[in-house]
Fold:
Amino acid sequence: MTARFFPSISKLTYTGPESRDPLAFHWYDKDRVVLGKRMEDHLRFAVAYWHSFTWPGGDPFGGETFLRPWMHGTDELALARAKADVAFELFDILDVPFFAFHDRDIAPEGKTLAESNANVRAIADIFAKKMETSKTKLLWGTANLFSNRRFMSGAATNPDPDVFAYSAAQVKNVLEVTHELGGENYVLWGGREGYETLLNTDLKRELDQMARFLNLVVEHKHKIGFKGTILIEPKPQEPTKHQYDFDVGTVYGLLCRAGLEKEVKVNIEANHATLAGHSFEHEIAMAAALGIFGSIDMNKGDAQSGWDTDQFPTNVEDTALAMYEILRAGGYTTGGTNFDAKVRRQSIEPEDLVIAHAAAMDVCARALLIAADMIEDGALQKAVDERYAGWEVPANKAMLAADSSLEAIAARVAAEGLDPQPRSGRQERLEALVGSYLR
Ligand SMILES: [Mn+2]
Structure:
């Protein structure tokens, strides 16, 4: 194959909102300062290796449509090297600061785990060399503990202890590779950490296995001096019928049970949030409230489909509400905006990959500007502050203090003759206010 997969496309630049060139940015102006920070530093975009370079365009009714040249040949490592060339070519065209990968995305599985791990290291060495001259850094690495049939009953939660051991050894390798590449996070997605039927499942035992596995990962992180964040990516189901990392609230419960609520954060995916029956902004706000907000996978589902369609974001209002919650949470620390999204199966041209990312970056940038307006104007926050203003009164604050009691509160209600009067939640007024920032 040729060295360049996108021969006619050069690095995209900001041309302003008036231009209609699909191979340019109209809102993403990386050096523009928003709330005291460059747009690029706010958004911290990442390209996902899996969807962009490894997924062949199949669906349950038909196979490959993309026919990527690096997916056809006999020398698997040579193909993996060619794929790495294409990946860094796209990173450069998009001018993105980050990328993210699973071990199996970047290198072929060998006959043994040792061979597989060596393949991952070989490609990681190529990444390291490329990263010396590329601006693109590693947002996170992760181990694929779900594709191979050995993981069909789970990884850490498998009834077979040999699979637990195999998974631990695989994670050790990818965590170390992520550390060596300067990765800012390490992600655990438990796609098969769950069950199909309770009839064959010891739920408590599996939760105990999962808790110990998480602790093993955190202990090793500290042992090797990895300063990045360990992230869990919640998802309610698909592939398993029920997943233990159902949503942010459930993950927080798992973390508390494992004693890791101060060690591990969440990587929240928009489509996973909606599959769990939540809005994306709900999951972000919940994670922030619980002190475990880490990073996001920015994609969306299809409103008419009940599965994970992993589409690039196109809805500015929805994205603005998510960005508003990210800004309210103080923005990212080690996290970023990872496009865990894929082009549609019929979008077979190389150009489609570039345009999908560029348009999504624009949606996020525009959403960031709107969210920044909401923050700067302060009217939304003011309405919330006013709604809870009663809690600033010392006698009311005292009810939440450790020395309060039902007796004392009841005595005060009697003494003051309290008779609470309902007040409007003003939802439509606030929704109209949100609409005003979209103008
Ligand atoms: Mn994801």
